[in-house]
Amino acid sequence: MSSRDDDANVMMYLLAGVGLGAIIGAAAGLLFAPKPGSELRSDIGDKFKELKGKTTEWVSEQRAKRGNAAEELGV
Q1: Which of 1, 2, 35, 57 could form a disulfide with 39 if both were Cys (CB 3.0 to 4.6 A apart)?
Q2: pTM of the predicted model, to two decimals?
Q3: Got the DSSP string for 5-26?
């Protein structure tokens, strides 16, 4: 494994940790907010849909980048 692969793995873990922290923080903020249950469930559903869309977009971008890298290497 090269140093470049190690750096990429470190960056992936860092981004995953930041993302997980953001999710936990958002969930805690919603759960401790003084809102009625139905409004809270609606907010959680909206945030989940937003997060799912962002995650799907990020995964697509990463796949495209890896595909471009493979083409450059002639794989």
Answers
A1: 35
A2: 0.47
A3: HHHHHHHHHHHHHHHHHHHHHH
